From TrEMBL:
NCBIfam families: cyc_pep_trnsptr. It holds the Pfam family ABC_tran. It comes from Pseudoalteromonas rubra. Residues 44-318 form the ABC transmembrane type-1 domain. It is found in: Cell membrane. Keywords: ATP-binding, Membrane, Nucleotide-binding, Transmembrane, Transmembrane helix. Its main location: membrane. GO terms for cellular component: plasma membrane. This is Cyclic peptide export ABC transporter. GO terms for biological process: peptide transport.
Amino acid sequence: MKSHSGLSSNVLHVRHGAIKNVRRKELKMVKEILSAHKRTITYSLLLSVISGLIMTTILYRVNIWMGDGMTQQAQGRAWMFILAAVLCGISLAASHYLVARLSTQFLTSLRLQLLKQLLKTRVEKLEQLGSSQLYSRLTLDINALSDSLAVIPNLLYNLIIVSFLLTFMWLTSEPLFYAFIGFLGGVFILVQLSAIARGNQFYQQLRDAEEDMYECYRGVIFGAKELATSNARRHFFEHKIILPVLEQVRRFEFKSQYLWSVNNVASQTATFIIIGIMAMVVDAGYASATHLVLFVLIILYLMGPLLSIFSSMPLLSRAYVSYQRLQQVNEDVAAPVSSNKALPNPPPSNWQSLHLEQLSYQYDNDDYSFTLGPLSLTFNRGEVTFIVGGNGSGKSTLFRLIAGLYGVQKGQVRFDTYGPVDTQTPEYRDLFGCIFTDFYLFREVIDHSGEFASHPQVQALLEQMRLDHKVSYDNGRLSQLDLSTGQRKRLAYLLCTLQDKPVYLFDEWAADQDPEFKHYFYTEILPMLRQQGKTVIVISHDDRYENLADQRVVLRDGQLHSVERSDSPLEVQIASIS
């Protein structure tokens, strides 16, 4: 067993390492912004310096005029004061403009970078991260960065004002300046740096709690039907899930807000205490009373910029935490470099068979242990394959492996004799048209070339799917998506087949169709796709239509149980179920 001192040493070592890591990330953040927008930052900083210099000059001249008792000569120069104030306002407004442009460009670049990275990310990695976490970071964290960047112009201006006035105080009276800066510096180190460290910790905890809150929102919205039909579920969800999460959010919000409130109070109190300390310096004969009066006026003016700087700290602290979390998302979804020796190029267009050879996949999840395979299967062009099996047999996992959404862990994929191929390339995945049980409908309709589909094409499919009385197509968009599950699946079929893929994967597509359209799917749509030379793979639980498949694959507990082929003519098979 380790001693208490040993534990303390380890804790200090870990904390020191964490602080160094945080500093490295903070420097990385600053360097990225500076390097991307050097010219804009330089101009903005220069304008802020000019504004601060003008304002300091104004204060200095006002002090002289007050000392001269507002003589006629001083009154005659009042126009200079007005001109300087106007120039200060113009330069400060220009600085605001440049920083606003900088911040919006930076946020747009960050959003684009994250979205591009997400588009390249493997589906299995996105599923591991979870939609609530990703959505909250793309909204709350981006908004936190936006709020913080908006305060930068005022922050720069106030920092420059404080710097110039401190320089003026030092030139006026060194003893009073050292008394002021010594006490203020001590308070800043003890109060501000401590508040920043604890504030970052509170905001980190708050963001974790807010992600749980987003999950509650999803439950309320997407689980509305289940909650409405179960008093027990609704009561449990409200009192055991929602209330504890909201209380956790409230607690961390209170801690962070109270921390910064106390921090501001301490800063204001310290400002008044320093006036008393400087009075003691004057009493000791180290400075004159005239200088003390001047310093008091400067300090009272400084309270505005200082409080503005201190009030910016919560926003900057939250932005820092948000930036770290966004960087973490970027690292989490970074696409791994493929280490296999598979061929990266797509197969020749005239391939006839897709071969899975000893394919296997195991979920890397402590809460869910399941292994698919190893299994070997062949899917021929112009044939329909039904994959059947009970829940949890591995049908959907096999679909995701075939489509390249999950990476092959063992085994290989070939087209005829070509391969093995890398299933993680966009070229491979582009061979497949997929409709999964958790499909998403896009309102825009595109064809195989990535352009808006022609109106006759879409209209013909709407009529074929018997949706022309509910949905219209205009300017590349579908008019209606709020349909029943079966009708939404028909729209998914429309979107899928318009892209004219060589392989189609349908995951229980017919499960939510009415009996008439289910019959139409098996006896008309699938034979039509087969005649077009498409390779069609269907997850099906409809035993009545099992004879319509050229191949029937049965899975049990992740293993290949049997493969059955049918040699009967299609017309005979259809006639047998009509």
